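Appendix C: a fully annotated inverse folding record. The material below is reproduced so that readers can follow the format used throughout the book. The structure is listed first as tokens, followed by the designed sequence.
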């Protein structure tokens, strides 16, 4: 199998896409898998605030599309944090430039981690997104990190990746510091209690990713 393009997104905002991207960036590093990471919240970025090696791009522009997709073989995984409202457009672009055909031909792997919210509008995105990926792998993800409750989930979400809630103080501290989760856990100057919460939470997150073989090459 060729390089793996991993897209994290949703058309609805406020569902915690960047938190998921941050865990995935750490997940691949923890598995010794090389990763190129991109933030599409141009021009300033949100994902980049936590990881210096993340590059901010505007995927509506051809120059930045080339920057991301012309160099896939520079790393085993290309991780893209898609800003709100841009997921459908990005999938349409991948279809237009033939990348989804590459999946069918076995030249590369594309996975879409579709982070949904707790509203009906977010649930309604699931089927439309699944149809748009045309052979790529579509994972629905329920992000409980900030205590979001999901009720009335449709059948299309029954096999979703589930991210548990993180201790509020640990989450707020890591966000305030603007560091990665693994970096926070490794920082000996931080609270051992909060690091313990973060470590236990991240272990559960990684297990959820292992279950759907996101680390398979």
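Designed amino acids, in order:
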């Amino acid at each position: 199998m060729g390089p793996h393009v991993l897209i994290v997104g949703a058309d609805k905002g406020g569902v915690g896409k960047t938190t998921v991207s941050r865990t995935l960036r750490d997940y691949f590093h923890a598995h010794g898998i090389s990763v190129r990471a991109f933030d599409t919240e141009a021009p300033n970025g949100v994902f980049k605030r936590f990881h210096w090696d993340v590059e901010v791009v505007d995927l509506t522009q051809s120059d930045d599309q080339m920057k991301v997709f012309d160099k896939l073989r520079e790393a085993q995984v290309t991780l893209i944090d898609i800003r709100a409202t841009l997921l459908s457009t990005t999938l349409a672009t991948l279809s237009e430039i033939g990348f989804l055909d590459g999946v069918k031909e076995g030249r590369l792997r594309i996975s879409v981690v579709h982070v949904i919210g707790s509203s009906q509008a977010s649930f309604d995105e699931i089927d439309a997104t699944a149809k748009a990926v045309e052979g790529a792998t579509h994972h629905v993800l329920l992000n409980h990190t900030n205590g979001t409750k999901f009720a009335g989930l449709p059948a299309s979400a029954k096999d979703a990746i589930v991210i548990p809630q993180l201790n509020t103080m640990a989450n707020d501290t890591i966000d305030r510091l603007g560091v990665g989760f693994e970096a926070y856990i490794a920082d000996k100057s931080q609270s051992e209690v909060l690091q313990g919460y973060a470590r236990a939470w991240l272990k559960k997150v990684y297990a959820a990713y292992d279950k759907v073989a996101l680390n398979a090459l």
